Amino acid sequence: MSLERELYKRANNKCELCGSEEHLKIHTLLPQKDEALNKSLVACKTCVDQIENPDTTDANHWRCLNDSMWSEHEAVKVAAWRMLSRLRAEGWPQDLLDMMYLEDDVLEFAKATGEGEPDPEQLIHRDVNGVVLQHGDSVVLIKDLKVKGSSMVAKQGTAVRNIRLDRENEKYIEGKVGPTLTVIITDFVKKL
Ligand SMILES: [Zn+2]
User: Fold this and answer.
1) Which residues share a beta bridge with 180?
2) Residue 105 CB: number of other CB atoms within 10 A?
3) Distance from the CA of 45 to the center of ligand 1, in angstroms?
4) What is the pLDDT of residues 22-52, one digit of tens each?
5) What is the model's pTM?
6) How many Cβ atoms sit within 10 Å of the Cβ of residue 84?
7) Is 10 exposed, middle or buried (CB count within 10 Å of its CB: 0-12, 13-18, 19+)?
8) What's the CA-to-centroid distance between 114 and ligand 1, angstroms?
9) b vs e for 133-165, b when ≥16 Cβ sit within 10 Å of the residue's Cβ?
10) Which of 148, 122, 146, 143 is nearest to 134 (CA)?
11) CB atoms < 10 A from the CB of 187, how many?
12) Which residues surround ligand 1, an ion (CB under 5 A)?
């Protein structure tokens, strides 16, 4: 049996990602060049177009991964993992990713296209010296700051542990100054 026929048989003549029976083709996962049973899958035009053109990704279409991520076939798992990684900011894809298990070598291949790497457009929080801040870091205040909504002033030199990053504004972090959780501007902190 040809590889192509074998793949269509495995797929039961349906898109292995969303189950559609229309406009099917063999999709081979980058960076693999030649079709292979464990690197190729049968997918519909809708799925393939979105895989290949991230700008056209419609998150709702990929709810289908709820089912197909459990496929026993490596190529399907990798395709699901990559798309969930691309969409992880939506929340639910991250939950699914957390439930997924890929063998080390499969995971390495899944990561080969850079899907799931930090998005260059993702907010990056930096302290006054330009050092990147992450969730859980500790910082020190470099000037006295009024704590919003209270009469308290946090003194220069106060350490703020276990900061949180604001998801919408790269200039804001949150941390506890004394007992109060407050928003602090990144320009006024230095990473410890
Ligand atoms: Zn599909």
Assistant:
1) 177
2) 9
3) 7
4) 999 999 999 999 999 999 999 999 999 999 9
5) 0.64
6) 25
7) middle
8) 22
9) beeebebebbeebebeeeeeebeeebebeebeb
10) 122
11) 11
12) 15, 17-18, 20, 44, 47
**Is there a contact between 141 and 188 (Cβ–Cβ < 8 Å)?**
yes
Q: How many CB atoms lie within 10 A of CB 118?
A: 8
Residue 101 Cα to ligand 1 middle (Å): 22
- Mean pLDDT across 120-146: 88
Amino acid type, 176: K
CA of 21 to the centre of ligand 1 (A): 8
Structure tokens at 76: 């399907």
DSSP strands (E only) in the chain: 24-28, 40-44, 139-141, 145-146, 153-154, 159-160, 164-165, 172-177, 180-185, 189-191
Which positions ≥6 away from 120 have C-beta within 8 Å?
A: none
Query: What's the CA-to-centroid distance between 170 and ligand 1, angstroms?
Result: 36
Residue 177 in contact with residue 160, Cβ under 8 Å? yes
Predicted local confidence at residue 16, as pLDDT: 98
Distance 39 CA to ligand 1 centre (A): 16
Q: How many CA atoms lie within 13 A of 107 on its CB side?
A: 6
Instruction: Report the separation in Å between the CA atom of 178 and the middle of ligand 1, taken as the mean of its atom positions.
Output: 53
CA of 43 to the centre of ligand 1 (A): 5
